[in-house]
Amino acid sequence: MIRKYTILGLVQGIGYRPFVARIAEELNIAGWVRNTGGIVTVLAAGSEASLDELYRRLSCDVPTGGFVSSIEVEKVEEDYLKESLLGWQDSSEEASEQGQGDFSKVSDIRGKNEIESGFRILESNQDEKTNLPLIPADIATCLECEKELLDRNNRRFRHPFISCTICGPRYSIIEKLPYDRDTITMSDFGTCEKCKTEYTAKDDRRRHAQTIACPECGPSLVFTGIAAYQQNEEENDFAGNLANESVHRKFTSNNSDKVIAGEITENSPQNSNEDALEKAVETLKNSGILAIKDIGGYHLACNPFDEETVAALRRLKHREEKAFAVMFENIEQLRKYCIVNDKEEAELLSPARPIVLVRRKSISSWEESPTVRDKKKTISKTDSSNTEETKNIADNVCLTSPDIGAMLPCNPVQIMLIKECGPLIMTSGNASGDVLETEDLNMKMWLEKRAASQEMAGVKLAMLSHNRRILRPMDDSVMKIVRGRTQFIRRGRGHVPNPISIDAAGEIFAAGGDLKSSFCYVKNGLAYVSQYLGDLESVSCQKFYKNEMQVMKTIFGFKPNSVVADMHPGYFSRTAAANKASENSLPISYVQHHKAHVASVIAEHKLDGPVLGFAFDGTGYGDDGTIWGSEVFRWDGNGRMERVAHLKPMKLIGGDEGAKKCDTILVGMLHNYGIEIPEWIKKRINSELICAAIDNEINVVTSTSMGRLFDAVSALLDICHYNSYEGQAPIELENIAAKSYEKASDLDSNYSGLITADGDVSKLLKYIANTISNGARTADDKTTDNKFSKDITLDTLKSQLAHLFINAVSGYVYTICKREKINQIVLSGGTFLNRILLEKTIDKLEAEGFKVYISEQLPPGDGGICLGQAYLHGHMLED
Asked: Quick check: 870 and 838 in contact, CB under 8 A?
C-alpha cells in the first residue's frame, strides 16, 4: 500500500525530514520525504498497519520548535513511488554534471536497482499547490549541543556556532523558501568531509541539519578592541545613530588615520575563536563593555556587579532611566537573586529563551539607609574574597524596579561567556530608540565615536563579532507571568515569525501603530506578526518598518487583497499602508486605535458572543477626533462595538512635550476639575501660564487618557516629573507602589470608589493632594497628623498612596463590569502592563465569576493592535 502525506504546519528548519525518516525506518516503510515549498510531502509504501502507525506518530509528535496543523492523506498508484525516485535521481545527476550540485542536495543516493527499498530524504522542490508556508523562529542551543560544546573529547568542543536539526538560527538567516542550505546565509560557508558524512548518516543528530558546521568549515569569531575615533569639530554633536546613512557615509572614509595615539586596536580577522573568546572574557572581567554579535544582532554586555561600569553603559547608550536585563548561567544561579515560579522557569528554559521579569529577593539598597548602602559599597570594593554568592547586583542595573529582566543563554557564545564571567548585563546593541545593529562596520564606527567622547573616558570598549550574515534584526522577546498568564512586553527572537490563528478571511495587510510598532499579514486564518520594530518617529525605524514589510511579503509569498491601518492621520504606519494600497490598487480601511486593542484579544482567544473590552493607554486618535485612552467598549459579537464608558474629557496642553511633562499634565487636570493647585506644586512649575493656555485653548487637546492620569498622579506624589521614555512615570509609580503591595490589603476595599462610574477623577485627585498636604511635608519628613496613616515616613506614604491610586483604577473597572453585566471581559492597552493593576483587576473580577482575557501571544500595547485591525477589517459592520 502506498500513501502520500501532505503535512502543513511549522515543519521546516526543525529537523522534520530526518524525524520522519527515522520513524519510517523504524516501521520498515519505503519511500521519501522532502520539503515542498512551505510544507513537507511524504510518500510512504508499507503495510496498512505500518502506514496507520506512521500517520498516528506524525500527528502526535513533532521536533522541538515545530507543530503540525494538518495532515492530508491520499492513496497513490504503486508506480508513483518508483517514478518519483527515478525522476529525482535523474535531476540530481543532471545538476551534478552541470556543476550545480551543492551541499543542500547531498542525500543517501543509491543505485537504481535499489530504489524500491529503503526510505530517503529528497532535495526540496516548489509547492504543488498553494499552501501557507511556516518558518521556525530562531531556536536556543539544545541540551545535546551544549553537552558537546563543553565536552573536551568532542570535535565541536567550544565551537561558537554549534547547532543541529532542532536548534540554532532560523528566521534571522533565511533568504527564501524552502529552508535549505542554499537559501540561508550558511550558504556562504563550505563544508568539510566530516560534516558531509554527518549530514547523510542515518543515525546522526545532524542528518540534514542545514546549519551544520564545525571549527574546520564554519563561521568564525573576531575580537576587535575599540580605539577612539578622532572627531572633527562639525561632528561633535553626534550622539550615535547606528542606522543613519548620512552618518555612515561620514565615517566610512579615511578613518584609519584618525586613531588616537596610544590606543591599541586588536582587530585581526586571522585570530582563532579561542583567542577571540579569551580577549572577550578579559574585557568583561576588567570592567569593560563588550558588543557581542549574537543570533539576531548585537548585544552590549558588562559586569552587573560593577556600578561604575553599569553607569558607563548607560552613558554609552544614552539610557539613564530604564532597567537593564541580566543573563544568568542557569535557573539555580538565578534563584540566588530572584524568586522564580514554575511558569516563569518554563518560559526561561523554553526554546525561545526570552527575557522574563522575575521578582528580586531583595529590592536592593534603594530601600536601605545611606549608611548601610555606603558600608556595602566599601566591602564590595575592598574585599577581594567577595564571591558571587555574596555580591549584590549594582543598584543602577534595575534602578527602582522590584523585578529583574532575567534571561538564560540562547547560543554557544553566550553559554561560554557566562560560564567564565558569571552573570552579565545583556542589552540591545544600539543607541536607545534606534534599530538593533547587525552590521559589524556600523557597530565599530559607533563604538569608536563613543570612545572618543569625554563621556567614555577610561572605559574599555570592544567587539566580539562573527562572519555569519544576519538578514533581519531580532530583539530579545520580553515577557512576564501574571496570574498564570503569559504577558508579552516585546515580541521578537524565539517567537517571530510563529503565526497566530484567528478567524479572518482573505489576505490582509494590517499596518499596526507607530509606538512599539509591528504589522501583520493574514492569510488562511493565520496572522504573521512582525518582530518589534521600534517607535516610528525615528527615521531608522521607519526604514526598518518598510524593509520588513517587503521582506516578509517576499519570503512568505503574501499577496494581500486589502489593507487596514490606524485612523490617526499623522501616523507613519498609516501613510505606509496608504502607499501600499495605492501602489497595488488595493482597498484600504481604517480602524479606531482602542477598538483594535480590544479586538486583538477577541481575535487571539476566538471569543464568541458579547464582550466588554477595556483599552487603557496613553493616547489614540478617537472617532470624534479627540485623544482617547480610557475606553470601554461593548462588543455584541455580530460586528457592533459601542463605546460605553471613559474618563471625563479634559483639556490638556498638547504636543510631545505636553505628553512628557507630568507637572504640566497634573496642573491641567487639577484646573479642569476646579481643584486649587497646592503651593508646593506652584513652586515647581508656572501653573498660571498653563491654566491661561488651557482657558484660551492655546495648543490644547481634549483627552480621556488613562495614561495621562497615571502621569499626573506620579507627579502629584513627587515620583516622576518627566517621561524621558514612553511610560516612565506610570512605571516608576508602579515600582513605588510595589513597596507596599503586600502590606496594603486594607486599601483594597476602602478606596475603590474614588473614580466614579461616569469617569470623574476629581475625588481621587483631591484625596491624594490633601493627604500629601496635611502633615506629610514636615521638616523631619514625618507625618504625625494624617488621617491616612500615622507616624510613617513620606516615602512610605507615597508608596501607599500610589497603591491606593492603582486600586482605585481597578475599582473603576470592576464598577463598569458590574454595571454592564457582560461575562466576558477583555483587558488591553499598555496601562495593563502594570502588574499590580492587572493582578488586582483579575482577582476582583474572577471572584465575581467574570471570565477575564488578556493578550498572551502579543503585547497589550501598540505592538498588538495590528491583529485587532485585521480582525475588525472583516468583522466590524460599517457605522
From this structure: no
Minimum mean pLDDT range among 266-275, 575-584, 783-792, 847-856:
783-792
What residues contact residue 423 under an 8 Å CB cut-off, 6+ apart? 304, 305, 326, 327, 328, 329, 333, 337, 388, 393
All 3 cell numbers of residue 40?
A: 513537507
What is d(CA 489, CA 532) in angstroms, rounded to the nearest whole number? 10
CA 274/CA 189 separation, integer angstroms: 20
Measured distance CA(669)–CA(671) in Å, rounded: 5
Query: Residues of 276-306 as b/e, b for ≥16 C-beta within 10 angstroms?
Result: bbebbbbbbeebbbbbbbbbbbbbbbbbbbb
Cα–Cα distances (Å) from 355 to 100, 249, 386, 427, in that order, read: 43, 35, 28, 10
**Alpha-carbon distances, residue 12 vs 133, 262, 470, 703 (angstroms):** 9, 51, 19, 48
665 in Cβ contact with 712 (< 8 Å): yes
Start-to-end C-alpha separation, the chain? 58
Mean pLDDT over the full length of the chain: 85
Check residue 859 and report its DSSP letter.
-
* Residue that the C-alpha cell 538578514 belongs to: 471
Q: Which of 238, 291, 224 is nearest to 453 (CA)?
A: 238
* Mean pLDDT for the stretch of residues 345-367: 84
Instruction: Give the phi and the psi of residue 73 in degrees, each rounded to 5.
Output: -120, 135
Buried b (16+ CB within 10 A) or exposed e, 153-172: eeebebbbbbbbbbbbbbbb
Q: Contact, 312 vs 433, CB < 8 A?
A: no
Query: Residue 77's pLDDT is what?
Result: 73
Least Cα distance to 480 among 318, 670, 382, 343 occurs for 343
pLDDT of residue 389: 53
- Residue 248 — pLDDT band, cuts 50, 70, 90? very low
- Pairwise CA distance, residues 603 & 503, whole Å: 7
Rounded CA-CA distance 460/226 in Å is 8
Return the bridge partners of 325, or none: 405
- Helix orientation angle between 273-285 and 412-421, rounded to the nearest 10 degrees: 40
Distance CA 765, CA 706 (A): 14
Helices (H), 117-183: 143-149
Residues taking part in catalysis: 17, 35
Residue 183 DSSP one-character state: G
Q: What is the pLDDT of residues 713-742, one digit of tens each?
A: 999 999 999 999 899 999 999 999 998 866
Residue with cell 496635611: 774
Residue 284 Cα to chain centre, angstroms: 26
Give the pLDDT mean for 50-55.
93
Residue 77, C-alpha cell as written in the block = 498508484
Q: Distance between CA atoms of 735 and 239, rounded to whole angstroms?
A: 30
> Are 108 and 18 in contact, with CB atoms under 8 Å apart?
no
Query: What gap in Å lies between CA 628 and CA 345, rounded to an integer?
Result: 38
- Quickly tell me which residue has 496601562 as its cell: 831
Mind listing the pLDDT tens digit for each residue in 2-32?
999 998 887 877 888 889 998 999 999 999 9
Amino acid, single-letter form, for residue 191: T
Distances (CA, A) of 746 to 642, 650, 750, 804, 807: 35, 31, 7, 10, 11
